[in-house]
Structures are given as structure tokens and as C-alpha cells.
Automatic annotation (TrEMBL):
One of its GO terms (biological process) is xylan catabolic process. The keyword Hydrolase applies. It comes from Arcticibacter tournemirensis. Belongs to the glycosyl hydrolase 43 family. The record marks D151 as: Important for catalytic activity, responsible for pKa modulation of the active site Glu and correct orientation of both the proton donor and substrate. Gene3D superfamilies: Glycosyl hydrolase domain, family 43. It comes from the Bacteria. Keywords: Carbohydrate metabolism, Glycosidase, Hydrolase, Polysaccharide degradation, Xylan degradation. InterPro entries: Glyco_hydro_43, Glyco_hydro_beta-prop_sf, Glycosyl_Hydrlase_43_Enz. SUPFAM superfamilies: Arabinanase/levansucrase/invertase. This is Family 43 glycosylhydrolase.
């Protein structure tokens, strides 16, 4: 993930034009996964730090070591930082890079899902549990069997829990075909079908996959799968799922074109049809979000690098209302006013 040139940005002006402010400014936070638990909003973000690791296209400078949980009464309310919820040193299998997490609740237990690199530098996804939505969380000794890549997002539908995941480039998804890793595997050519995000039903105990991982298909308006060279629409990372009016909305980041897009389908497994852009580019290379309903209003949680004046790996989590239009489309959000 390359650093973008930032010397042309007037941050004082940009912050005046920003449609929302960071939820917290005493730490850097990113990749917000927002949920309503016990009547309160809980946000599970990455905790960005300056680890002094040089930039590269694999995102090695995203060298996060722990997670903090934030909570608030309302999306506009003051956020409480509940402190360290899980540290990499307390995860037996993980060595580095605690990237975008998510959380779920089942029968009074809270599950924190997170990707991290193992000693062999390969990402897997782990789970940790707590009796409180704010943690602290206790990690399982091993990662989820059959998991790979990054950015888990867990979605509950009719009593079943599905995990969506995957990310190309630094997220390593391009190394997998049919759920098997090989360094020889590469991103498809521009005229070939793009790699799809992955999904698997979770087991009853929420700690394993209950079925083989499936690849999700995202089609264009003609029912043809999006191509790898369609950088403005193809999946890159940051899966999220929400349900609206009986339809399944799969949203994601396009990575190198910096958009949050969405695609709509009739099943949690897809296929999904591309529908448009939810969030235009933010300051910073990455874009990552979640979508949540609170007291009848829908919200987009997202991040940008405005607080750090454009440092791509020092981001801040924000929230803004999101509008579903009568035709089922989502109104595109500009993170900064003109
Ligand atoms: O925060 C590290 C990585 O950056 C996330 O896993 C990606 O989604 C991107 O936001």
C-alpha cells in the first residue's frame, strides 16, 4: 500500500470540510466494525501505531499490536475507550500485524475475530472470547482451521452466523485457489475474472467454520463476473454485510481506487450484483467501513487520515448517517464538502 503525496493538502481546510470528526483523538483507530450490543454502540477498530516500519506494497507499516474497544450511547455521542481488549503477546499463534477485527454476540458470549500474521508470515484469522462486549478477550490457542487472509466480518442472519473475509495484495488472497495456498498463485490478469471475497458459515460454538469456505461472485449489471482489471469495482478488501428490506448488501473496498462499493443479492452467499459507490475516497490510502442501524437510522462507520495529516497508517474512525433510497440504492457519501 503506497503512501500518497500529501504536501498538496491543506489540512486546516480539509478538516473544516470534513462531514464528521474522529470518534477519539487520543489514539489512532481504523477499520471500524460497529454493532449494537446491550443497547449501546460498540466499535471494534484496528489500533494504529507508528512502529517505524518502512512503507511497502504489502502494508508492513501497518504493524498494529493490540485492539481497543470503543463504545458510545449514540453515534454522535462521546466515545469511551475501554483500554486494551487483546494484545498480540496474548495470542499463542500470532506474531504481528493485528489488522481489521470484527465482533459478534451469541448467547451472552462475545466473540472477537481478528487476522494476524503467524511466525511464517502468513495471515490467518483467530477468535477470542469475553463475557463483556468491551473485553478483555481470551484468545483461542490456534487460529480458525481453514481460515486465511484478512478482514473478517461476521454477519448474523436468522440465527446463523457467517464470516466474510479476504483481501488482495498485503492481505494475501491472491495466493489462494480453492482454499489452498501457493506462492505461485498470483492476482488474475486484467481480462480474467477478479478474485472474490470468501464466506463460511460458523460452527455452533462460533470458533470454527461449519463448512468449506466459498468464493463469492460479484457480477456486473449484465450478470457477468467483475474482471480483475475493473479496479473501480472489483473486490480488494474490507468485507461487510448488512440486510435491508430483505436484500443482502455486501460492501467492500476497491483498494487502489479507494472506494467503498456495494453489491446486492438474495442470499448471504451471493451472487451479488454491483450497485455503486457508498463512500468516495478519504485522505489516506486505505478505506474500510461498517454499516449499522441504530434507533431507526443507518450509519456508515469509516476512517480517514486527516487527524495525522495524511499519514496512511495513522487513521481515525468516524461515523456519518447513511441513506437507502426508495429504489434500494445507497446514496453516495462525500467525506469532505466541496
Ligand atoms: O488496517 C490494516 C488493513 O488496512 C486492513 O486490514 C485493511 O482493510 C486496510 O484498512
Amino acid at each position: 500500500m503506497p503512501e500518497e503525496p500529501i504536501d498538496h493538502i491543506d489540512f486546516e481546510d480539509l478538516n473544516k470540510r470534513a462531514i464528521s470528526s474522529p470518534l477519539v483523538n487520543h489514539i489512532y483507530t481504523a477499520d471500524p466494525s460497529a454493532h449494537v450490543f446491550e443497547g449501546r454502540i460498540y466499535v471494534y477498530p484496528s489500533h494504529d501505531i507508528e512502529a517505524g516500519i518502512p512503507f511497502d506494497d504489502l502494508g508492513s507499516h501497518f504493524a498494529m499490536e493490540d485492539y481497543h474497544v470503543l463504545s458510545m450511547d449514540t453515534p454522535e455521542g462521546k466515545a469511551t475507550d475501554h483500554g486494551v481488549a487483546l494484545h498480540v503477546k496474548d495470542v499463542p499463534w500470532a506474531k504481528r500485524q493485528m489488522w481489521a477485527p470484527d465482533a459478534a454476540c451469541k448467547e451472552g458470549t462475545y466473540y472477537l475475530y481478528f487476522p494476524a500474521k503467524k511466525a511464517d508470515n502468513i495471515f490467518q484469522i483467530g477468535v477470542a472470547t469475553s463475557k463483556s462486549p468491551s473485553g478483555p478477550f481470551i484468545a483461542e490457542a490456534e487460529p480458525i482451521q481453514g481460515s486465511y487472509s484478512i478482514d473478517p466480518a461476521v454477519f448474523e442472519d436468522e440465527g446463523k452466523y457467517y464470516m466474510y473475509f479476504g483481501g488482495i495484495w498485503g492481505g494475501q488472497l491472491q495466493s489462494y485457489r480453492n482454499n489452498t495456498y501457493s506462492e505461485a498463485n498470483e492476482e488474475p490478469l486484467p481480462n480474467e475474472v477478479a478474485l472474490g471475497p470468501r464466506v463460511a458459515l460458523l460452527s455452533n460454538d462460533m470458533k470454527q467454520f461449519a463448512e468449506p469456505v466459498r468464493e463469492i461472485v460479484i457480477n456486473d449489471e449484465h450478470g457477468k463476473p467483475l474482471l480483475a482489471g475493473d479496479n473501480e469495482r472489483r473486490f480488494f478488501e474490507a468485507s461487510w454485510m448488512h440486510k435491508y428490506n430483505g436484500k443482502y448488501y455486501f460492501s467492500y473496498s476497491t483498494g487502489d481506487t479507494h472506494l467503498i462499493c456495494y453489491a446486492v443479492g438474495d442470499s448471504p452467499y451471493g451472487p451479488f450484483t454491483y450497485r455503486g459507490v457508498i463512500l468516495n475516497p478519504v485522505v489516506g490510502w486505505t478505506s474500510h467501513h461498517s454499516i449499522m442501524e441504530f434507533q431507526g437510522t443507518w450509519y456508515l462507520f469509516y476512517h480517514d487520515s486527516s487527524l495525522s495529516k495524511g499519514v496512511t497508517h495513522l487513521r481515525s474512525v468516524k461515523a456519518t448517517p447513511l441513506t437507502h433510497m426508495p429504489d434500494g440504492s445507497i446514496q453516495t457519501i462525500d467525506p469532505y464538502r466541496a
